[in-house]
Design goal:
Elements: H1 6-20, H2 23-27, H3 36-39, H4 47-50, E1 57-63, H5 65-79, H6 104-111, H7 115-123, H8 128-135, H9 139-146, E2 190-196, E3 199-208, H10 212-219, E4 227-230, E5 251-255, H11 265-275, E6 283-291, E7 299-308, H12 310-318, E8 326-329, E9 346-348, H13 357-366, H14 370-373, H15 375-385, H16 388-401, E10 414-419, E11 424-429, H17 458-464, H18 467-483, H19 487-507, H20 513-541
Parallel strand pairs: 1-6
Antiparallel strand pairs: 1-2, 2-3, 3-4, 4-5, 5-7, 6-7, 8-9, 8-10, 10-11
Length: 542
Amino acid sequence: MLILPRGCFFALALMLIVAALPAAAQESARPANWSDASHDNSAPIDYDLILPDDRINELYIAFSPEAWQAEEADMLEIYGERGTGGRGAFPGPGGPGRPALADIAEIAELLNRSDDAVREALALIPDFAAVSENLGMSIPEIMAAIALPGGFAPPTGEAGPGGRPRFPGRGAGAGESPVRLELARNPIWVPVTIQFGDEVWNEVGFRYKGNSTLASGWRTGKSDLPFKLDFDEFEDAHPELRNQRFYGFKQLSFSRSDFDPSLQREKVAADIFRAAGVPAPETAFYAVYVDDAQGKGFDFWGLYTAIELPDDTLIETQFASDEGNMYKPSGSGAAFMAGSFNEVSFDKETNRSSGYEDILALFEALHDPARLSDPALWRSQLETVFNVEVFLRWLAANTLIQNWDTYGAMPHNYYLYADEATERLTWIPWDNNMALSSTAGLRSPLSLDMQVEPDAWPLIGYLMEQPGYASQYDEALAEISAEIFTPERMTAIYESNFAMLSSYLRDMARDDIEALREATDELIEHVHERAQAAADYLANRA
């Protein structure tokens, strides 16, 4: 017979009593700092306060020693020692069962490149564009090959352009190589305390997020890594915090990209998409301060872009129904090539126990032989399961502003939502920090005339083969280039954002304002170039 000490028996009894209480009774013991207007899920979503356009919000994140150590240990297991990868993302991961790639010869063998080519490429880091050009691969492909858990499976031997091996997302061979483009798993959630203004939120879930940006940032020893917050991640352990919200938000994503010295692309691109009639997240600039429980107090991590999650508030505010399936596609199936469907490529963000009938219906309609024999029937079937109008408006906006790191170049960075009100899948762009540049260098953005291999990117290629859809694309492009992405409008936005960001950095005595100015000037130059490119394209189409 087990005999418990008196205190343990009392604690156990209390736990059992609390567990037996209904949720309403458990919630009645809210913490002293709880305010229904800021913490409760019954409060309205406050976009003006949490995701404003005209100011920089400040957020304070405090770790306990245990939470910080747990997060660091988990990252160590995934990526190896922090700061041991030189100036770039090399070498590969350490940790249990994941020995680091120790020398150039091993990297060269994995990448099917010569030792000299790899050595020259590594010497160019952190000039990622030059690295990419030297190896003939995008940075995510390189990261997939030598930096992510699970290692690298060599190409099957089929040659791509210039004799290079095929990789996922590279032209007609998209999806044929087993190279992994995603992490084997996300980092763990740990509890933190959040302070915003005069309010405090307890036991908020924090985890790092991202792929190549996270991996390279960790290995270069950066502290300002991208992360997510979930305000009721730990509600099961703390029922008094059940359905905790952040002024209506359950989750927020915080992005800080090494590839965007302007700090504006993530925010501006999302704003452009929404202005163009495409569902896209609301965003805002945040100054993030972190206390890592090492006795130093709060440290300024930097200026981030806060982004609402598509499976959280976005579907509540931009769709008629928020009960549908939300997918975050990535990998070979996400290119929508014939026969490429696999469940792994369509990660479910909602309704995880339901099937994939809506995705399979899109595959079936897209690859139906009627596309060639009866185009009118094909279009009708496609429009029954897919919001073609929104996709074409996204395609026009995305191609106008330029973005190499999404569909048409890479099979990821978008969501699909099965809106139950329309019974159609709708496109939602995501992760736009590589947008708004024609010189990203990691791979070429789409051309305005949509020169893609149709079978490799059928959502673009097959639709643009249809004269009616091509005309819709042209009309959307003309509208967006004349009313939204114009030099006058965008210059005003860029300059306003620069004034906010530079003022904050100046107050923090930071020395990166000159780089911010130069990157902002590049954005302004870019919108003038794209205005001319759109005018030339549309003139030739007339």
